[in-house]
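[Meeting: bench + compute handoff]

Bench side (C.D.) handed over the final construct sequence. Compute side (W.E.) agreed to return the predicted structure before the next meeting so the bench team could plan truncations. Sequence as handed over:
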Amino acid sequence: MGSKKILITGVSGLIGQILSRSLKSIYDVSGVDLVVSSEVPTSIVDATKLEDLATAFSDVDTVIDLAGNPNQFSPWSVVRDNNLNCTYNTFEAAKLGGVRKVIYASSNHVTGMYEVDPPYSDIVQGLYKTMDPNDVPLITTSMPVRPDGPYGMGKLFGESAGRYFSDKFGMSVCCLRIGTVNKEDRPIQIRQFATLLAHQDLIQLVNLCIQSDHDSAFSVYYGVSNNRWRFWDIENAEKDLGYSPVLDAETWRDGFN
């Protein structure tokens, strides 16, 4: 194992399992969750309770924060009472524990309302027979945020919290606006030909964030594979991290129903 100690909050969820399964061969990985992970040692902790959460953050180099309800259709009451608390407590526990880096699982839903406007509205419906993907203006991390619901609003809070903890306390924070990650690891509906983040590319992106030497830096990156129809810009991830996604959702186009 490598010398770095990695703590994953929400480790027993889909993304937590994907990451821990791969990263445990490189780093000393542990997790916190409400249920035990089948991949790595897990502390059973309610992340909405700071005092309980903070006990797991000692002697940790990097935290990957996945805690919270992952349902993009979560009502405001769930986001308010659960997700916001989990997110704030993770950053606060990281500060108290002297953690130098937090990789925060943000979401593409912080800019989801762009998808009601053309050409993105056409792309997510698969209406691009007469369209050239090279002509599609990419949505960048410097463009105004446009959350598409309470879940996206909660993720935007997390990005704001990350900015604060980075500026105020010198913490290195990478916010990843994650695209579509599913257990099938392929598109299962038409939008995902644009938004898929394949497991292999997810692992690469997170590992590059772990290895990045941008200390005391705050950054936001889109997490998406090298899809022909992707409309999120990954240039800053390519430049800052060396991110080079290898999978294209078009691999699964033939026979798609």
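W.E. noted at the follow-up: Helices lie at 14-23, 50-54, 76-97, 120-123, 150-169, 192-195, 199-211, 235-241. C.D. will use this when planning the next construct.
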